Amino acid sequence: MIKTFLFDIDNTLYDYDAAHQAAFRAVSAYACRAYGLTPDAFIALHKRGNQLLQERVGSVTAAIHNRLIRYQIMLEELGRHMGGAPRMAELYWSTFLDAMEPGAGLADCMAALKEQGFRLGVGTNMTAEYQFAKLERLGVLEAMDFMVSSEEAGAEKPAPRFFALCAQKAGCEPGQCAFVGDSLEMDARGALAAGMLPVWLCPEERPCEGSIRRVASLAELPGLARSL
Fold this sequence. Notes:
The chain is an alpha/beta fold. The chain has helices spanning 16-35, 39-57, 67-78, 84-99, 106-115, 128-138, 150-153, 160-170, 184-193, 221-227, and strands at 4-7, 119-124, 146-149, 177-181, 197-201, 213-215. The protein has a six-stranded parallel beta sheet with strand order 3-2-1-4-5-6. Helix 3 (67-78) crosses helix 4. The protein starts with a strand and ends with a helix. The relative contact order is 0.17. The model has no long low-confidence stretch (mean pLDDT 96).
Protein backbone atom coordinates (compact mmCIF):
# COMPACT_ATOMS: atom_id res chain seq x y z
CA MET A 1 0.00 0.00 0.00
CA ILE A 2 1.45 3.35 -1.06
CA LYS A 3 1.61 5.91 1.75
CA THR A 4 3.94 8.58 0.31
CA PHE A 5 4.41 10.27 -3.05
CA LEU A 6 7.86 11.72 -3.71
CA PHE A 7 8.51 14.17 -6.53
CA ASP A 8 11.48 15.22 -8.56
CA ILE A 9 11.36 18.98 -9.22
CA ASP A 10 13.09 19.94 -12.48
CA ASN A 11 11.14 19.04 -15.62
CA THR A 12 8.61 17.29 -13.37
CA LEU A 13 6.82 20.06 -11.50
CA TYR A 14 7.63 22.70 -14.15
CA ASP A 15 9.51 23.15 -17.45
CA TYR A 16 13.15 23.44 -16.39
CA ASP A 17 14.46 23.76 -19.93
CA ALA A 18 12.44 26.88 -20.71
CA ALA A 19 13.44 28.62 -17.45
CA HIS A 20 17.10 27.69 -17.93
CA GLN A 21 17.17 29.01 -21.48
CA ALA A 22 15.77 32.36 -20.34
CA ALA A 23 18.33 32.60 -17.52
CA PHE A 24 21.22 31.51 -19.74
CA ARG A 25 20.35 34.18 -22.31
CA ALA A 26 20.30 36.87 -19.60
CA VAL A 27 23.73 35.86 -18.25
CA SER A 28 25.17 35.58 -21.75
CA ALA A 29 23.97 39.10 -22.60
CA TYR A 30 25.49 40.45 -19.37
CA ALA A 31 28.84 38.73 -19.95
CA CYS A 32 29.02 39.88 -23.55
CA ARG A 33 28.47 43.49 -22.48
CA ALA A 34 30.74 43.36 -19.42
CA TYR A 35 33.65 41.40 -20.87
CA GLY A 36 33.48 42.08 -24.59
CA LEU A 37 32.60 38.49 -25.51
CA THR A 38 30.64 37.26 -28.46
CA PRO A 39 27.73 34.87 -27.77
CA ASP A 40 29.77 32.01 -29.24
CA ALA A 41 32.76 32.90 -27.06
CA PHE A 42 30.54 32.91 -23.99
CA ILE A 43 29.18 29.46 -24.85
CA ALA A 44 32.72 28.13 -25.30
CA LEU A 45 33.81 29.68 -21.99
CA HIS A 46 30.75 28.22 -20.27
CA LYS A 47 31.58 24.75 -21.58
CA ARG A 48 35.14 25.15 -20.32
CA GLY A 49 33.83 26.22 -16.92
CA ASN A 50 31.57 23.18 -16.77
CA GLN A 51 34.45 20.89 -17.69
CA LEU A 52 36.76 22.29 -15.02
CA LEU A 53 34.02 22.26 -12.38
CA GLN A 54 33.31 18.60 -13.07
CA GLU A 55 37.01 17.73 -12.95
CA ARG A 56 37.31 19.39 -9.55
CA VAL A 57 34.13 18.34 -7.75
CA GLY A 58 33.10 15.21 -9.67
CA SER A 59 29.94 14.52 -11.63
CA VAL A 60 27.75 12.95 -8.93
CA THR A 61 27.73 15.67 -6.28
CA ALA A 62 25.39 18.60 -5.72
CA ALA A 63 28.30 21.04 -6.18
CA ILE A 64 28.24 20.31 -9.92
CA HIS A 65 25.10 22.49 -10.07
CA ASN A 66 26.63 25.49 -8.28
CA ARG A 67 26.32 28.46 -10.63
CA LEU A 68 28.49 30.75 -8.50
CA ILE A 69 31.46 28.38 -8.59
CA ARG A 70 30.96 27.86 -12.32
CA TYR A 71 31.01 31.60 -13.02
CA GLN A 72 33.97 32.05 -10.70
CA ILE A 73 35.93 29.49 -12.74
CA MET A 74 34.88 31.13 -16.00
CA LEU A 75 36.15 34.54 -14.93
CA GLU A 76 39.38 33.01 -13.63
CA GLU A 77 39.87 31.41 -17.05
CA LEU A 78 39.14 34.75 -18.68
CA GLY A 79 41.64 36.51 -16.44
CA ARG A 80 39.06 39.00 -15.23
CA HIS A 81 38.05 40.29 -11.80
CA MET A 82 35.80 37.83 -9.97
CA GLY A 83 33.39 40.51 -8.76
CA GLY A 84 31.14 39.64 -11.69
CA ALA A 85 30.63 36.04 -10.54
CA PRO A 86 28.04 36.75 -7.81
CA ARG A 87 26.31 39.25 -10.09
CA MET A 88 26.04 36.61 -12.83
CA ALA A 89 24.76 34.02 -10.36
CA GLU A 90 22.15 36.41 -8.97
CA LEU A 91 21.07 37.35 -12.51
CA TYR A 92 20.79 33.71 -13.51
CA TRP A 93 18.60 32.72 -10.57
CA SER A 94 16.40 35.81 -10.51
CA THR A 95 15.68 35.40 -14.22
CA PHE A 96 15.18 31.65 -13.80
CA LEU A 97 12.66 32.00 -10.97
CA ASP A 98 10.77 34.76 -12.81
CA ALA A 99 10.50 32.52 -15.89
CA MET A 100 9.15 29.48 -14.04
CA GLU A 101 5.57 28.38 -14.66
CA PRO A 102 3.89 25.57 -12.69
CA GLY A 103 3.29 22.41 -14.65
CA ALA A 104 -0.25 21.91 -15.90
CA GLY A 105 -2.47 20.65 -13.10
CA LEU A 106 0.25 20.92 -10.44
CA ALA A 107 -1.80 22.60 -7.70
CA ASP A 108 -4.85 20.37 -8.27
CA CYS A 109 -2.64 17.26 -8.24
CA MET A 110 -1.06 18.13 -4.90
CA ALA A 111 -4.40 19.05 -3.35
CA ALA A 112 -5.99 15.80 -4.53
CA LEU A 113 -3.16 13.63 -3.22
CA LYS A 114 -3.29 15.40 0.13
CA GLU A 115 -7.04 14.89 0.27
CA GLN A 116 -6.51 11.18 -0.36
CA GLY A 117 -4.26 11.06 2.71
CA PHE A 118 -0.82 10.68 1.14
CA ARG A 119 2.31 12.27 2.54
CA LEU A 120 4.17 14.32 -0.06
CA GLY A 121 7.92 14.73 -0.35
CA VAL A 122 10.60 15.95 -2.71
CA GLY A 123 13.60 14.01 -3.96
CA THR A 124 15.82 16.24 -6.05
CA ASN A 125 19.36 16.59 -7.28
CA MET A 126 21.03 19.97 -6.67
CA THR A 127 21.66 22.23 -3.72
CA ALA A 128 18.81 22.80 -1.28
CA GLU A 129 18.68 26.61 -1.32
CA TYR A 130 17.39 27.07 -4.84
CA GLN A 131 15.22 23.96 -4.78
CA PHE A 132 13.37 25.52 -1.85
CA ALA A 133 13.07 28.75 -3.85
CA LYS A 134 11.63 26.82 -6.80
CA LEU A 135 9.01 25.09 -4.65
CA GLU A 136 8.01 28.44 -3.17
CA ARG A 137 7.78 30.00 -6.63
CA LEU A 138 5.60 27.08 -7.80
CA GLY A 139 3.30 27.50 -4.81
CA VAL A 140 3.75 23.97 -3.49
CA LEU A 141 6.30 24.40 -0.71
CA GLU A 142 3.65 24.30 2.01
CA ALA A 143 2.20 21.07 0.56
CA MET A 144 5.48 19.19 1.03
CA ASP A 145 6.14 17.25 4.22
CA PHE A 146 9.88 16.81 3.63
CA MET A 147 12.70 17.22 1.13
CA VAL A 148 15.76 15.21 0.19
CA SER A 149 18.33 17.08 -1.92
CA SER A 150 21.49 15.54 -3.27
CA GLU A 151 23.34 18.14 -1.21
CA GLU A 152 21.88 16.65 1.97
CA ALA A 153 22.13 13.02 0.84
CA GLY A 154 25.76 13.38 -0.21
CA ALA A 155 24.98 11.67 -3.51
CA GLU A 156 22.88 12.27 -6.59
CA LYS A 157 20.13 10.13 -8.01
CA PRO A 158 20.17 7.25 -8.83
CA ALA A 159 22.52 6.44 -5.92
CA PRO A 160 20.96 3.98 -3.43
CA ARG A 161 21.81 6.20 -0.45
CA PHE A 162 19.72 9.00 -1.96
CA PHE A 163 16.61 6.84 -2.15
CA ALA A 164 17.33 5.29 1.25
CA LEU A 165 17.17 8.76 2.81
CA CYS A 166 13.91 9.42 0.95
CA ALA A 167 12.34 6.30 2.50
CA GLN A 168 13.75 7.18 5.93
CA LYS A 169 12.18 10.63 5.83
CA ALA A 170 8.93 9.21 4.48
CA GLY A 171 8.76 7.07 7.60
CA CYS A 172 7.71 3.94 5.76
CA GLU A 173 9.12 1.04 3.78
CA PRO A 174 10.49 1.77 0.29
CA GLY A 175 7.69 -0.32 -1.19
CA GLN A 176 5.19 2.10 0.34
CA CYS A 177 6.70 5.04 -1.58
CA ALA A 178 5.88 6.13 -5.11
CA PHE A 179 8.57 8.24 -6.78
CA VAL A 180 7.50 10.56 -9.62
CA GLY A 181 10.06 12.00 -12.04
CA ASP A 182 10.82 12.76 -15.66
CA SER A 183 14.15 10.90 -15.91
CA LEU A 184 13.87 7.23 -16.81
CA GLU A 185 17.39 6.53 -15.57
CA MET A 186 17.70 8.72 -12.47
CA ASP A 187 14.12 8.77 -11.22
CA ALA A 188 12.29 5.69 -12.48
CA ARG A 189 15.10 3.14 -12.59
CA GLY A 190 16.70 4.57 -9.45
CA ALA A 191 13.43 4.28 -7.54
CA LEU A 192 12.79 0.78 -8.90
CA ALA A 193 16.23 -0.40 -7.76
CA ALA A 194 15.50 1.04 -4.31
CA GLY A 195 12.27 -0.96 -4.02
CA MET A 196 9.92 1.97 -4.60
CA LEU A 197 7.06 2.24 -7.08
CA PRO A 198 8.48 4.30 -9.98
CA VAL A 199 6.13 6.67 -11.80
CA TRP A 200 7.71 8.01 -14.95
CA LEU A 201 6.38 11.37 -16.13
CA CYS A 202 6.68 11.10 -19.90
CA PRO A 203 4.24 12.88 -22.27
CA GLU A 204 5.31 10.67 -25.17
CA GLU A 205 3.70 7.29 -25.71
CA ARG A 206 6.62 5.05 -24.80
CA PRO A 207 6.69 1.50 -23.42
CA CYS A 208 7.52 1.02 -19.74
CA GLU A 209 9.83 -1.64 -18.44
CA GLY A 210 9.08 -3.91 -15.51
CA SER A 211 6.82 -2.34 -12.91
CA ILE A 212 7.50 1.27 -13.97
CA ARG A 213 4.24 3.18 -14.37
CA ARG A 214 4.03 5.96 -16.96
CA VAL A 215 1.86 9.08 -16.76
CA ALA A 216 1.64 11.71 -19.45
CA SER A 217 0.88 14.53 -17.01
CA LEU A 218 0.56 15.32 -13.33
CA ALA A 219 -3.20 15.42 -13.78
CA GLU A 220 -3.19 11.61 -14.09
CA LEU A 221 -1.59 11.05 -10.68
CA PRO A 222 -4.68 11.30 -8.42
CA GLY A 223 -6.44 8.66 -10.54
CA LEU A 224 -3.40 6.42 -10.47
CA ALA A 225 -3.13 6.90 -6.71
CA ARG A 226 -6.68 5.68 -6.21
CA SER A 227 -5.82 2.45 -8.01
CA LEU A 228 -2.74 1.63 -5.91
